Amino acid sequence: MNVGEVAALAGVTVRTLHHYDRIGLLSPSGRTSTGYRQYSPADLDRLHQVLLYRDLGFPLEEVATLVDDPSADPAEHLRRQHRLLQDRLERTRAMVAAVEKEMEARAMGIDLTPQEKFELFGDWLPEEYEAEAEQRWGDTEAWAQSQRRTRAYTKDDWVRVKGEGEDVETRFAAALRAGVPADSEPAMDLAEEHRQQISRNFYDCTLEIHAGLGRMYVEDERFTAHYERIAPGLAQYVSDAIRANAARRER
Amino acid sequence: MNVGEVAALAGVTVRTLHHYDRIGLLSPSGRTSTGYRQYSPADLDRLHQVLLYRDLGFPLEEVATLVDDPSADPAEHLRRQHRLLQDRLERTRAMVAAVEKEMEARAMGIDLTPQEKFELFGDWLPEEYEAEAEQRWGDTEAWAQSQRRTRAYTKDDWVRVKGEGEDVETRFAAALRAGVPADSEPAMDLAEEHRQQISRNFYDCTLEIHAGLGRMYVEDERFTAHYERIAPGLAQYVSDAIRANAARRER
DNA sequence: CTTGACCCTGACGCGACGTCAGGCTGTGCA
DNA sequence: TGCACAGCCTGACGTCGCGTCAGGGTCAAG
What we know:
The structure is a homodimer.
Chain A: H1 3-10, H2 14-22, E1 30-31, E2 37-38, H3 41-55, H4 60-68, H5 74-107, H6 114-121, H7 129-137, H8 141-151, H9 155-177, H10 185-201, H11 207-219, H12 221-230, H13 234-250
Antiparallel strand pairs in A: 1-2
Helix pairs in contact in A: 1-2, 3-4, 9-10, 10-13, 11-12, 11-13
The first copy, chain A, binds a DNA duplex through helix 2.
Protein name (chains A, B): Transcriptional regulator
Pfam family, one (chains A, B): TipAS
GO molecular function, one term (chains A, B): DNA-binding transcription factor activity
């Protein structure tokens, strides 16, 4: 098949296919002697995958890594797509629910403040995280559990959870400023408290998972930035305390 | 509130707010003496609307017309948002169903051709139409009915529907080429058949609605292009035949 | 052998921001 | 009272995913 036919079949423009060819996302498996692009059924399959992941909001570069993932057979792709679509379904349902709540509030004469509206809508769970969270957490049970639990959270729950988190963070910062070593008892205890908190509020945070989180705090600049804003050196400090705590508990 | 706070609350970047200010989509209602942007609660409400419509896939220019729509009070906005979200829910559900069908097919050892996969996924109902269809058809009963009915269509149904449509179109083209006047009996009969077909397959197409469609065929370049590709002058011809048919039947 | 639909490769344009750069403002604390 | 540092300002250029010409070759039907 040549470009025009493929474009019509897939519902994209010829230019899009040219683009995918140029950036190496989807190069037709053949060319005619006169330079016409020739797409094979396998190419069409790949295009199908590409368009699906694209529609799910992934930038093309990530789409490439997803469809090229050597550890993913067709069945794995289907499972992943299914999961992503389910997530999207959930988020859309949540948005519908938010709009309905607003309608209800209006019907009852209650006037929500803009803040409440934003909170209802959950900008703390923005759409962009769809792709991101998937990549970060993948298909882990922890993520699924967290999704299930937080789904039921009310606004007050979130306020409480956030408060608890900030509490531990400020106490970490105080310890750091006081010169308490990261591998000392009190620092390790704080780390343990941090772990328990996550387990209570999100998912069973094992020592192993917690250690992973600790590493992430220094490796992922967004998390690092979060801690550094509270106190310089805090990301590394928390990370070290978590590692020390994991080492102590593992024995 | 100044930009940073608003950005944090709404989950967007400061740059985004600057952008919205520059393009006039959301200009803060005030500035401090030193030029700092000051956002009022009303501004936040507007931002909330903007972000919602943006998330629904509207380009910012259209978002502006939507939020500025003088005929839309808050309740109307909520209803519209609710509708759009429901549509999105439906489409996502359809995609989930498609993936599940693929999984089933695989489980049963059936290998779908790429064509079948694309058809399952319905590129004939692409995501982009979400915003477009809304604007075109708005909240009309016809559109709602069409949505409800076509939702249950199988692949075979679509093939049949498409075939019927093409049948009438080619007969229109033949009449045009044969020099049959657009306001003659046979042409009007074709128009009437066209109307019945829509009524059967999509929604109760009244004479009035049909007349509106006829106008659209010559006014909207995309529809015009569709007919012109079949035969030059066909858009105008079909439009005229529809108008003649409506005039005849109205008496 | 022409005509019109289809294909090719640049190359520029655009929407919705991201990302500096260079400079002013506001505030906690020494 | 001064200063450090976070936060705000306005350009201005960069990026992503294509849309849209421009200029030119190709293919099939009549």
